[in-house]
Structure formats: structure tokens, C-alpha cells
Design goal:
Length: 214
């Protein structure tokens, strides 16, 4: 009989999660913050349009509404206004807490790697009572791979093709959810290994994944 000592069960993996439109529905808070920024600066911003393309860094959106030389200052102003306007208005995505808990319950680590300004990302998680073993912000697409490698993440969960690219760059499994701006076909074409409807499906996926690794 083969002993477990000869074939030990692999340790539970570190799993990375994106934040906006993966763990949190940031549309209400971001919409309100864009409207407040428009009022504060006297500059028109189509907040309804802006929240349909969440994922990339803030500057990538602001360049559509402000001259390039004003974007750094507008980014700073937006981030300064954000906590008072956006945190309380932003709910967790269905299954977000359970997904994080499933990772930690299996003995793994759950980390958040996001393009969002890191202090504001931490405020969201604290407000919603979502515990993470690490939170790394200000990283987008391929640059997310830097943090995923440093954290030893073997899985990365996100909603955007940029998240898929980050996972691939870290040689991690890409698990995509269709709760953001990218549909299942886009995510698969970008290279997602698995596509889920939302995070309510993740605990079952994780359980099955861990069985295949045993």
C-alpha cells in the first residue's frame, strides 16, 4: 500500500482576487465619485459610460475627460474624495465573502491584487468585512503578475481580460467571472482557463480543483 508520506497532499494554494467587479460592485460608488468630481471641477464626465469600462487604471478613464497634463492632479483629487463618497455606496459581489472564506478554510491564503489605489482598496474590504491575507494595489494587467509571483499565487480570479493577462504572466491559473465588462467569449479568447458566472460558483470550483491536485 502506498503511504501518504510517499505522496503527500499538496498544500492549499494561494489564490489572488481582483477587486472591482470581482469582489465588489464598485459601480455605484465610482459613479457617485465621478459626478462629484465633475461638479467640483466644472468638467463634464459621462459617469454612466465610465462605469461600463471598469478595470483599467483611473488615469486611463480620466484622460477621456481632462487634458493629459491635468490627469495626475485629477487622479489625486478623485482619490482624496473617494473614501467619503464611494466606500459606503459599494456592496460586495454575491459570493465574495464565501469565495475568500473557501480559500482560507482550505488552508490557503487569499490575497487581493488590484489596479485600485491601495489605501482605498483596503477601505472597501474593511467596510465590507472581507478579510484578505494581503492587499496589493496600483497594479494593472501584466503588472499584476509581479505581485502574484511574489505572493506565490497559483490561481488568480478576475473579471477582465487584463486580469487574465496578469494570471498568465504569473503562470497562475486564470479563473474569470463574467460580472465585469468582459463576457465569457472575450475572457476565454484572452486565455482564461475557467469561466464562472460569478463568485457563488467559486467554492465548488475550488473544491474540485483541490481534489484534482490531491
Amino acid at each position: 500500500m502506498t503511504s501518504r508520506a510517499q505522496h503527500p497532499v499538496p498544500p492549499a494554494p494561494t489564490v489572488g482576487f481582483d477587486l472591482d467587479m470581482t469582489l465588489i460592485d464598485s459601480r455605484p460608488g465610482i459613479h457617485a465619485c465621478y459626478l462629484a468630481l465633475a461638479e467640483r471641477t466644472g468638467t463634464y464626465i459621462d459617469a454612466d459610460l465610465a462605469i461600463t469600462r471598469l478595470g483599467p487604471p483611473l488615469a486611463d478613464e480620466l484622460i477621456n475627460w481632462f487634458p493629459a497634463d491635468q490627469v495626475p492632479a485629477m487622479s489625486d483629487l478623485y482619490r482624496e474624495m473617494y473614501p467619503a463618497i464611494a466606500i459606503a455606496a459599494t456592496p460586495a459581489m454575491p459570493g465574495a465573502r464565501e469565495a475568500m472564506a473557501a480559500v482560507r478554510g482550505s488552508g490557503g491564503r487569499a490575497v487581493v491584487v488590484t489596479a485600485k489605489y491601495e489605501p482605498n482598496a483596503k477601505l472597501h474590504l474593511a467596510h465590507l468585512g472581507i478579510d484578505a491575507d494581503a492587499v496589493i494595489g496600483d497594479l494593472w494587467a501584466e503588472r499584476k503578475a509581479e505581485a502574484l509571483r511574489e505572493e506565490g499565487a497559483r490561481v488568480y480570479v478576475g473579471d477582465h481580460v487584463g486580469d487574465v493577462r496578469g494570471a498568465r504572466g504569473a503562470e497562475a491559473l486564470s479563473v474569470a467571472v463574467t460580472t465585469g465588462p468582459c463576457d465569457a467569449e472575450e475572457l476565454r479568447t484572452a486565455g482564461a482557463d475557467f469561466v464562472l458566472g460569478d463568485l457563488t460558483e467559486f467554492p465548488r470550483w475550488l473544491s474540485d480543483y483541490l481534489v484534482t491536485r490531491a
